[in-house]
Amino acid sequence: MSERESTPLPQFKILGQPVHLSKDYIPWLLDRLQRGIGTHVVTMNAEIVIQATHDLELSTIIHNADLVTPDGSGIIMALKLHGITQPRYAGIDLGEDLIRLAGEADREYPVFLYGGKPQIVQKAAQKWQTELPNLKIVGIEHGYLDTEQQAKLLHQIQSTQPKIILVALGMPRQEIWIRDNFHLCPQAIWIGVGGSFDVWSGVKNRAPQYIRNLDLEWLYRIAQEPSRWRRALALPQFAILAILERLWGKHKDKLAPN
Length: 258
Prior knowledge:
Elements: E1 11-14, E2 17-20, H1 26-34, E3 39-44, H2 46-52, H3 56-64, E4 67-70, H4 73-81, H5 91-102, E5 111-115, H6 118-131, E6 137-141, H7 147-160, E7 164-168, H8 173-181, E8 189-192, H9 196-201, H10 209-213, H11 217-224, H12 229-232, H13 234-248
Parallel strand pairs: 3-4, 3-8, 5-6, 5-7, 7-8
Antiparallel strand pairs: 1-2
């Protein structure tokens, strides 16, 4: 293994989409940060898998990502069907862990926040700057930019070279945007964090821990945002397809290296 490579994590495919398996992803990511190995992280849930089954562009992005983590409870359920015990790692938790890593006194990992509404991304940044005084945020930009503003954003990212870039544009827009601009900062961790800025800013509440422990965070989000119910239709569709996939025995080889 060369200095520019990292130990591959085992992966398993669910409905044709890969997910990497680990009890703790942070040491693996920290190793890549320390060695300047760029990393595109996709946080996988049932909705993304269903969309990727008929969206070749999204499926290709997922397959080319350096790390695909099990965000949703549906992914954990599908893995259990194949006898694989894997803890869920929500994208918001991964984003928080990376920010806390960057905020440690002996670290030098500048952070860039992009996406969400103007006041929301500002409040999210303020929350973390207050909590982590050593955190170095080198850029904050909302997700409603015109063409000229977008060009300035890309120039800012390229000139500041942050090490952790959190993108909150929603799926799949954030995954496509990261794919298209990864070359501007090739040594950074790029991760789409969806609605995390809303929670960090205090505009929305995250489900209590006991609800998360029951794998019902998706239901709590629907209760907060009833308009999400159409998106939730992917869950039963995913469950049926995952069960059928298990019954058809398509995964005789089980785990495979990255």
